[in-house]
Design brief:
alpha/beta; Rossmann fold; 8 helices
Amino acid sequence: MPHHQKYKAVLLFGCPGSGKGTQGVTLAGMPNLFHLAMGDIFRGLDKQSPIGQEFLSYSTKGLLVPDELTVRVWKQHVQALVQRGEIRPDYHILLLDGIPRTPAQAELLRDCIGILRILHLVITNVDGLVHRLSLRAKKANRPDDADESVIRKRISVYEQETSPVLQSYPAALVADINADQHPLAVLRDIADCLSRCLPANI
């Protein structure tokens, strides 16, 4: 891809449990939408490769992966998908889930992604969200994630570190979606939003 060309992208934003992954996977069923979840990209790294070893040097110590490394991993992953023909920059719109997570990442990505829309999945019923995440963690046999204090801490971290990323973009790009609804209702609202803002000739 020429250095001056940008990937077209839609950003999925929302606190843990707001439904980003569920909606991203569902939307990826559309021919021209390609879901990219940063957590999946990290988990899929070859742990023996230099970049995989660099990632492990942070993750195994419980440290946050630095912004520069996160963006470098993302760019290499996307470039590999383009080379294999799985992503066509002239056709696909990337659904970004979990990146950018910080204002610094937003700045590092500014030269390579063109944001068409930001879908902000808004949860107002925090107690209901905590209960839902707790049940989900128990079903997945992850007792640590079922601890209410841990869940509330994750939500707090999102508000402190990730939510400010929205301020890095023009307010006109942000569409607030009521994520307290049934997932199908959320999907309906997202589809309505995207149908009005995405290019009609793709």
